[in-house]
Structures are given as C-alpha cells and as structure tokens.
Amino acid sequence: MELRHLATFRTLATTLNFTQTAALLGYVQSSVSAQIQELEAELGVLLFDRLNKRVILTDEGQRLLVYAEKLLSLAEEAHTALSARSEPTGAVTLSAPETLCTYRLPPVLHQFRATFPHIQVHFRPLPVPELRRSVLEGRVDVAFLLEEPLRATGLVVEPLLREALLVIAPPEHPLTQRTLVTPADLEGEPVLLTEVGCSYRNLFKRALAAAGVYPTTNLELNSVEAIKQCVMLGMGITVLPEVAVQVEVAQGRLVALPWSETGFEVVTQLIWHREKWQSPALKAFLSLIRERLRNPSFQENEGEVQ
Asked: Where is each HTH lysR-type domain found (predicted)?
C-alpha cells in the first residue's frame, strides 16, 4: 500500500471529484483513477461508488479513511523529525460549520496561506452533529465549533471568541417598532430554524419554550444564506450569530429585534484530539488562529479535558 495512493484517496474522499483531486495534487485525471483502482484491487473492496456522475464514499472507504489519516500523519511526523527544513511544511485538515466558514475563516485562511505557502490546508465540510466525531475518529486534525461552552472527553477544547446571537426580522415586521421583544411576543409568529444539532437553534427554542411558546410554523434550512433570504422576503423570524447578519442589518435589509434575553450568545471554539501529535504545520495553524481570533478574556487551554 503506497502512501501516495493513500494521499490521493484522502483528497478524493474530501473533494468527491476526480477532476478537482487531480488539479489539487498535480496529476492528470487518469492517474487519479488508476491509483484508486490499484488501491481497491489491493484491498479487494470498492472505496467509491460512481452513481449518475456522482462520487460517493462507500462504508469501506469511510473505514479506510480513518486509517489513511493516521498513516499519513505518522509519515508526516517521521518526515518532519528527520527533515532539516526550517519552514513548516505538511498539511492541516479542518472542518467548521457554515457560519464560520463563510464569515470568520476566509481572512484567516488567506493570511495563513500567505504566511505558510508550503502548508496545504484541506477543508472537509461536515454537518454540525459530525464535527466532534470527525476529530475523535481522526478524519480531521482540528474542527471549529459554534456553540455553548463545551467539555468533551478525549478532546482539547479551546474557546476563542464569544459570538452574540441576534433575533432577526424583516424591516416591515411590526415587532421592529418595539423597544423590547420577549419570547412571549413570538407567540404565533412563523420561525425559521437552522439544521438540527445547531446550538443557537437549541438556545432559541429553549428560550421560547421557557415562555410557553412552541412555534407551529417552522421552516428548517441548512443554509444561513437561504435563511437570511427567506427572512428578507417576510417568511418569518430567525436567530443567527451577529457576524452572519451584520452587513444586512447595517444596510437595513434585516432588523435585529431588541431581544429581552441576556447572555444570548455562543462561543467559537477550536477542538482537536487530546492524543493528536501536533506537527509543525498544525502548530503554525493553531498559533495563527489564536493570534487572529482569540479573545483576551479567555485563558490559555480553558476547557481542556484530560
């Protein structure tokens, strides 16, 4: 089993696209296909399904991915230990929820790429409920969470930044004229919700339930941008992190209601496996993230779970 085959497999498992994988690795597409076929023949299993021009990772492929991550990480560790390079090299695999991917991370990733041009960053989009498991299983090196302060066995949890939550309505909504809006005021109002497992969805629903409000007209969407568009069209009220709506609020396309609940916030947190070896590439990434995103009010290693 060749490491280059595993590296190609890992990249394809991330992109699920042969053309993108070839471009990322500097191969022709036929070379990517040949490497995957050789790996499948060696293991005697099908790693990817090709259905209607879509590439899907099989159950066997998902199991191999866990081991591929470990083997490639060990190979990188050995290379780093024996290399005389002074500039960090290697790769970092990360994942994050849509809100952070869209509104927090792009400037940080831009700076990281400019500062460490020889480190590859692989981003693996995952549903919110899978983020913690992906770290525990070794599928990603680090993941960002946007939720209430977390403690989880086997993980190091580093809080970075408090994120205020805003209850958002379209400009023409009657509640925008109020000086204070309480959960009880949302009785009978259509509410737009983010995906199941989203922390601020849960906070919002708990606040409403405490006031005896149980929205009956719910629309659930997995996209923050889609939710904002629906609110602007007058389809309902929602709750989103301030960072996701500050442009639209400033432009008057959305209105932040004067919400009565205090401490209505979540925390951007960084997590990695407690036993994860920190390569120079990973150390460089963590250092830059702390420099750009860490709030001084958080202490070093706050939330670390032994």
From this structure: 1-58
Domain end call among 53, 84, 115: 84
Q: What is the mean pLDDT of residues 280-306?
A: 72
Domain assignment of residue 181, given as a range: 162-265
Please state, in angstroms and as integers, the Cα–Cα distance from residue 98 to each residue in 14, 26, 107, 146, 275, following that order: 16, 28, 15, 10, 27
The model's pLDDT over 173-198, given as tens digits with 9 standing for 90+, comes to 999 999 999 999 999 999 999 888 88
Say which amino acid occupies 99.
T
Could you give the number of structural domains in the chain? 2
CATH number at residue 220: 3.40.190.10
- Give 266's Cβ-side CA count (13 Å radius): 24
Q: How far apart are CA 17 and CA 11, in angstroms?
A: 9
Q: Would 24 be classed as within a structural domain?
A: yes
Residue 303, pLDDT > 60, answer: no
Structure confidence at residue 52 (pLDDT) = 82
Residues 111-142 pLDDT 10s: 999 999 989 999 887 888 889 989 988 889 99
For 75, the token pair is: 């190979």
The answer to whether position 259 is within a domain reads yes
- Computed over every residue of the chain, the mean pLDDT equals 89
Q: Which of 55, 84, 113 is the last residue of a domain?
A: 84
